[in-house]
Amino acid sequence: MKEQKNHDYLQERLYKPIQRKRFLRSIALAGGSLMVGLTACRKDGQPGSGTMDVGVADIGILNFAYVLEQIEAAFYIKANASYYNNAPLSEKQVLFDIMHHEMAHRDFFKKLLGSNAIGTLQFDFSSVDFTSRDSVLKTAKILEDIGVEAYNGLGPFIQSTDYLKIAGKIVSVEARHSAAIRDLLNPRSADFAGDDAVDPATGLERSRTPNAASGGQSIVATCNSFLLTKISASTLP
């Protein structure tokens, strides 16, 4: 019953339309939310000390998803707080809509996990030049791609059918984000479903577990490159 209530909550958060007239007001609020996120402490009150492990089994998987969503939400909040140079309205709207999806995902996992949730993370986006379109969109592509890979990679290990259904709905949204960002980078090309995202032999989306390396770096390592509060997933597949 609890899982169904949380499922309904996610449906409501994602279905609720974004009113365009609130666009500028939401952007202003996003800037404030970013500062809160960047200065937040760990759950144990020791900012930046040690490493937080996501946990085991379904709770560990949900916490890892929560990590991904926290990073994505914080990134898009910052990207929307001050757009890259000469950003057209159409691209601002894409980033704005994705931001709201990621914030909904983040809030959903926090509510679902309750007392089992890891703490609010501290972020490090110093490697991103938020004035540069290329830097912002390529970072967005990295985050969306690893999100899709991680959800797909961990899906077979989720024990709860309710959680599995929810993960399936979220990963499909993340894949839409990935395709949208890829199309902005390479308009009207086949890159929206490039070979690095979709296996051309099977037509299936690529998947990866958190600690599996691809291109020399695991998803955990990629996450930590955007975090001051480091995480580990030592007990996950």
Give the key terms.
mainly alpha, two-stranded antiparallel ribbon, 6% strand
Q: Count of DSSP helices?
A: 7
CATH third-tier fold name: Ferritin
The biggest sheet, with number of strands, parallel, antiparallel or mixed sense and barrel status, is:
2 strands, parallel
Would you list the SSEs in sequence order as H and E? HHEHHHHEEEEHE
Shape: globular
Give the rounded overall mean pLDDT: 84
* Share of helical residues: 55-70%
Number of strands: 6
Taken together, the total number of domains comes to 1
Low-confidence stretches: 13-49
Name of the CATH superfamily: Ferritin, core subunit, four-helix bundle
Broad structural category:
mainly alpha
Distance between the termini: 28 Å
User: Strand sequence of the main sheet, in spatial order?
Assistant: 1-6
Describe the structure.
The protein has 7 helices and 6 strands, in the order H-H-E-H-H-H-H-E-E-E-E-H-E. Mean pLDDT is 84; it is low at 13-49. Helix 3 runs antiparallel to helix 5 and helix 5 runs antiparallel to helix 6. By secondary structure, the protein is mainly alpha-helical. It has a single domain, classed as Up-down Bundle (Ferritin). The protein is globular and about 45 Å long. The protein has helices at residues 2-15, 23-39, 57-81, 89-113, 133-154, 161-185, 219-224, and strands at 51-53, 198-199, 204-205, 213-214, 217-218, 230-232. A two-stranded parallel ribbon has the order 1-6. It has a two-stranded antiparallel sheet with strand order 2-3. Strands 4-5 form a two-stranded antiparallel sheet.
